[in-house]
Amino acid sequence: MGNSLSAIRGIFFDFIDDPWKHVGEEEKSARFYADGLLVLEEGKVKAFGSFAELSLQFGDVPVTHIPDRIIMPGFIDGHIHLPQTRILGSFGQQLLPWLLKWVFPEEKKYSDPEYAKEGSRQFFENLLQSGTTTCQAFTTHDPVSTEAFFEEATKRNMRVVSGLTGIDRFAPEGSMDTAENFYRDSKRLLEKWHKNGRNLYAITPRFALGCTPEMMKVCERLKNEHPDVYINTHISETPTETRECIEYHHTADYLAAYEKYNLVGPRFTGGHGVWLSDEEFRRLASSGAAISFCPVSNLFLGSGLFRLGKAKDPQHTVKLSFGSDVGGGNRFSMINVLDEAYKTGMCNTTILEGRVDPRSQDLSEAERNKLSPYRAFWSVTLGGAESLYLQDKIGNFDAGKEADFVVLDWKAGPRAMTWSQSRLVEDQPATVEDAANLLFSIMMVGDDRSVDQTWIMGNKLYSRTSGEPALAGTR
Ligand code: GUN
Ligand code: ZN
Question: Which of 31, 107, 125 is nearest to 72 (CA)?
């Protein structure tokens, strides 16, 4: 075997399919090896399978053994804001007043290259500590923050999606820019960063309420000129925002404000989507666009309960990522996101099972709201990758994929974890059900302390046991 090969031995769990397609037998969507081997070559997966089988073929490859942990593909955060890293947990407001009071003043500081660089460094450290290996991120209206984002991502060799954030109304003077400047700066940044290493570019109109028709038109023009880039935005987060947006753009609903400028299709993500109509869900599904479900933020800002079961309607399935929406979300960890996603689903189930209003009973939608560990961890790995059309690069351990993974410790975290895990498994997970039970206890009782290590392209970039991020700020 060539010298460039290496391997990781341990307990592995990943996905090969969407568990919502396997109601009653969700384990068919997962792959579990109680003793597995992940063979790596130049940061990519060369082979993946049981140790017993693969060690015959790769017997002379140096092996790193990681015992007593579950190794999964890295988590994908489909919606997050770089410049809100330092305003987590800002008190007392719902979306629009929260933006005005807390967000815009903080984001303005990112026009200072030093402030932006330090913020980006903290941002990526938080991601790695949380086991997040890919994110789709907003920056600010100022190119300085977008440059800082891509530079720090590049140092860590992470697969990321981001772009200059366009806003030319709604925000105070100094927190916006003109459509003309946005076009010029986006074009320059896009040509510099899209597909440069693992970086990907998103044309990023912040939200339709913050964009004039001129801003929307330049987004359309950029997309026409560069059809393979992403579109990242917000949609239907709160009732007030939705109403105001429809009035401002003179459209029948929120989605139509983006459709009017031909922005909706593959590689479009709208964050939140809490107040989408059934009809909008159908149009999103048929277009191939995605929604990013941000439950921590939806609860923190009081935006509402996203209809997960509606998005997963088998007749009109909408692509989904899950997002932290930091700092609308008060946690970086996708484990916390799964916790709140589960509770959102349970509240929706209370409404849908028919005892509040028998007319709204829909037992199959209620069932789809229930976030099993299979549905949960698929959503933050392969499902998130599919929503970004990156399933050929990340999301599971198929040969040829980029080797981003997270090492989970089912005993770390709150003291209650020890009780929780010992109730579930004697010692080590022996079956896929054992492992799924441990993963459910991690998502409901654990937090970022459950993340023991985070690896990017076959390199360990974060290790909890060694304290500080191993390679923070370096490559
Ligand atoms: N809508 C427009 N901007 C933002 C933002 O920064 N956060 C959230 N949650 N929603 C938005
Ligand atoms: Zn957001």
Answer: 31
Q: What is the dihedral of CA 199, 202, 203, 206, to 10 degrees?
A: -120
Ligand 1 pocket check for 81: Cβ under 6 Å: yes
Q: What's the pLDDT at 468?
A: 54
Q: Find out whether the beta carbon of 237 lies less than 6 Å from any atom of ligand 1.
A: yes
Q: What is the CATH number of the domain that holds 42?
A: 2.30.40.10
Q: Return the ligand number nearest the Cα of 324.
A: 2
- Judge whether residue 47 has pLDDT over 90: yes
187: helix, coil or strand? helix
Higher pLDDT, 1 or 243: 243
Q: Tell me the whole-structure pTM to 2 decimals.
A: 0.97
137-191 pLDDT tens trace: 999 999 999 999 999 999 999 999 999 999 999 999 999 999 999 999 999 999 9
Q: Does residue 325 have its Cβ closer than 6 Å to ligand 1?
A: yes
**Closest to 183 measured CA to CA, from 150, 223, 155, 149:** 223
What domain range includes position 270? 75-387
Ligand 2 center to 247 CA (angstroms):
21
Which of these three, 361, 387, 413, is where a domain ends?
Answer: 387
Rounded to an integer, the average pLDDT of 409-431 is 83
pLDDT of residue 467: 58
Q: How far apart are CA 111 and CA 168, in angstroms?
A: 16
pLDDT in tens, 269-280: 999 999 999 999
The CA 28 to ligand 1 mean position distance, Å, reads: 37
Length of the chain: 475
Whole-number Å distance, alpha carbon 258 to ligand 2 midpoint, is 16
Position 415 scores a pLDDT of: 79
- Decide if pLDDT at 426 tops 80: no
Helical axes 213-225 vs 179-193, angle rounded to 10°: 30
| Cα–Cα distances in angstroms (integers) from residue 408 to residues 67, 421, 453, in the given order | 11, 13, 7
Distance of alpha carbon 462 from alpha carbon 453, whole angstroms: 5
In a domain, 166, yes or no: yes
Last residue of a domain, one of 352, 387, 422: 387
What is the domain count for the chain? 2
